[in-house]
Task: structure prediction
Amino acid sequence: MGFAERTKKNLQHIQKAFDAGHDVHVVTQIVNSLLGLVVFPWESHLGEVVHAMPLAELERQGWPRWEITKGSCATLGELIRHLRNGASHQDIWFSSDDRDAGEVIIETRDRKKGAPEPYWVARLNADEVRQFCLRFISLVEETVG
Result:
């Protein structure tokens, strides 16, 4: 739980620093937060109910909608697995190096070991990735905390 709380605090701090004109890179912090949250072993804590949560239901609750351009994904557990695989294999792409999260699209890909092409691709605006991270942290706090 401490990790999730510190991730949330760092996300908020970097955004405030950026808004105040400090030389920080918001998108880098957002991606670091996403990487830490999806790679961190939450499976043992969140339980099957959370993993089985339909993405469509989460979207109705205000979670950002990942644009899945290749493959499919129906549950939060599936999404986290694909994001973790992409992160673990450094298969993340950025539309630009802009520091403004609203100006950057983050795309992650999942591919079978040794395959040249991914079988799953999803993208989301960096600002929406921040929203996803904050909602995921809240879910972890509600579930584990």
